[in-house]
Amino acid sequence: MKKIISITALVLFTMSTLIAQDSTDVKNKGFNFGVRIGYSAYSFNTNNRAPYGSGYYGGLFFEKRLSEKWALQFETNFNYTGSSTLQFPILLKYKISGKFEIFGGPQLDYSFEQTTMSIESRNKRFGASLVIGAQYNINSKWFVEARYIYGLTDQFPVYEGANPTSAFTKKNSFNFGVGYKF
Fold first, then answer.
1. What is d(CA 84, CA 74) in angstroms, rounded to the nearest whole number?
2. 56 falls in which pLDDT band (50, 70, 90)?
3. What is the DSSP-derived secondary structure letter of residue 96?
4. CATH number, domain at 174?
5. Kindly report the CA angle at 98 between 97 and 104, in degrees rounded to 5?
6. Best exposed site among 60, 136, 143, 158 by fewest CB in 10 Å?
7. Torsion angle of alpha carbons 181, 131, 177, 98, nearest 10°?
8. % of residues, the chain, pLDDT over 70
9. Do 91 and 105 form a contact (C-beta atoms < 8 A)?
10. For the segment 67-117, what is each residue's pLDDT rounded down to a tens digit?
11. How far apart are CA 72 and CA 22, in angstroms?
């Protein structure tokens, strides 16, 4: 657990340092920091079954406006959807209108615990995903968002006896939430 806290602190420190180097007056350079929470519906895609469920997520984000239309957003999220997972997405955002934005990018996942689909299931701690979504800015502080997270790696492979099955256990989820920019 200490290792995870250290890794999370290092990632957050690195992101804030990189963004801070670009500006002495962060308000004028388009820097935002905030929190987000919400509901997550997930499924594990396999050849023979697709278990699903729901959970919650919460996290911190750092957004750096690159121009009037473009932004780069770094996040550290805790997601509980069948297992406790830390997620580290890096998202490129595009402002379609004054209040509506779309985003996408890669995400690194770290699972704290095993989610078993059979008695002898083994998991990999690290995984990779792709994120796409949309955000509606209610005002300058509050927003609502919807995102789809598509698992790229077999983070939870299933074994029966000594032989792996042909089951693919990529985790996909829909997230719906609200956020606040400080």
1. 20
2. very high
3. S
4. 2.40.160.20
5. 60
6. 136
7. 50
8. 65
9. yes
10. 999 999 999 999 987 778 899 999 999 999 989 999 999 999 998 865 545
11. 13
For 49, the domain range is: 2-181
Phi then psi dihedrals of residue 153, to 5 deg: -110, 150
Domains identified in the chain, total number: 1
d(CA 125, CA 164): 18
What DSSP line would sit under 16-72, residue for residue?
HHHHHHT-SSTTTTTEEEEEEEEEEEEEEE-SS---EEEEEEEEEEEEEE-SSSEEE
Residue 1 in tokens? 């657990």
Cα 161 from Cα 163, distance rounded (Å): 6
Q: Report pLDDT for 101.
A: 98
Token pair for 59: 């996290």
